[in-house]
Design brief:
single chain; 86 residues; mainly alpha
């Protein structure tokens, strides 16, 4: 069986949103005084995977967002409350 990986071609606005999400994760993590390694460990993912999310290299899926919010003890609505530039 062949596994195919599809590459998503993001628009500039979507890439900006992915970057904003990564920046928001860093902001919230630092407010809680949690290192990247600690957050990754509690999420049960590799630190490199979290680094890629925080640096906007990949888009976190809904389960990753859920885990981040759970570990940081924040509601999902707070996670997505960042200022978007118009």
């Amino acid at each position: 069986m062949v596994t195919r990986v599809s590459k998503i071609n993001y628009t500039d606005n979507e890439r900006k949103f992915i970057s904003d999400i990564g920046n928001r994760i860093v902001e919230l993590r630092r407010k809680k005084g949690i290192s990247q390694e600690m957050l990754a460990d509690q999420m049960k993912i590799a630190p490199r995977s979290l680094s890629d999310i925080e640096n906007g290299k990949c888009s976190p899926n809904s389960i990753m967002i859920y885990r981040i919010a759970a570990v940081l003890g924040i509601p999902l609505t707070e996670f997505y409350s960042f200022q978007e530039e118009k």
